[in-house]
Amino acid sequence: MRVVLAEDSGLLRESLVNLITYFDHQVVATAATAGELRTAAAVFRPDIVVTDVRMPPDHTDDGLRAAIALRRDRPSLPVLVLSQYVDSAALSELLRSGDAGTGYLLKDRVADGAQFVATMREVGGGATVIDPDVVRRLLTRRDDPLLRLSTRELEVLALMAEGRSNAAIGRELVISEVTVSKHIGNIFTKLDLPADEISHRRVLAVLSYLRG
């Protein structure tokens, strides 16, 4: 894959470049500011953007805002966001910003280089992957409507939020794909997700799970 990488820390940026290229992907451009990210992505048209949330000039959520702006022009652009903290509002907005692969990882996850690059590949291929630690932390904050869900349905929804397919959920929970599909149908019903949003119900369910 051709990657545009945005990270304001020079040391981490170089480490990520080395890691990505080690696994046979090409970093076509790097950026140290949100403005540089937008320019690089427009010029190089990468297969995926990997960006920190906090970037200059404001050091708030500039990297995320730049990624969302890029998706307004190119909704099919996969984006993998790195963050040092859990921000459910930012994650919800990112998930809504396009129909391409989306990832949200805590920076600690980068320490496992092979897993990080595997996640990047998944997102580049169109998957939605949310850091398992983010899912677990957000679960402790949730109230209704998730209280309508059974324990098993919550387990299925948590794995959906990690980007797992029905088959992968079945393997993890040691249940059949038919049973997984039934649980997902129950989740859609209990979360009042409209039947006319069939193609996006998984994302809508995950958003319900993550929103505060």
Automatic annotation (TrEMBL):
Highest taxon, organism lineage: Bacteria
Region forming the signal peptide: none
Domain HTH luxR-type residues, every copy: 142-212
Example of a GO MF term: DNA binding
PROSITE patterns recorded: HTH_LUXR_1, HTH_LUXR_2, RESPONSE_REGULATORY
Keyword flag Iron-sulfur: no
Record-linked CDD domains: LuxR_C_like, REC_NarL-like
Keywords per UniProt: DNA-binding, Phosphoprotein, Transcription, Transcription regulation
Modified residues (4-aspartylphosphate): D52
This protein's record includes keyword Metal-binding: no
Residues covered by the Response regulatory domain: 2-122
One Pfam family it belongs to: GerE
InterPro entries: CheY-like_superfamily, NreC/VraR/RcsB-like_REC, Sig_transdc_resp-reg_C-effctor, Sig_transdc_resp-reg_receiver, Tscrpt_reg_LuxR_C, WalR-like
GO biological process: phosphorelay signal transduction system; regulation of DNA-templated transcription
PANTHER family xrefs: TRANSCRIPTIONAL REGULATORY PROTEIN NARL-RELATED (PTHR43214:SF24), TWO-COMPONENT RESPONSE REGULATOR (PTHR43214)
Name of the protein: Response regulator transcription factor
Organism taxonomic ancestry: Bacteria, Bacillati, Actinomycetota, Actinomycetes, Streptosporangiales
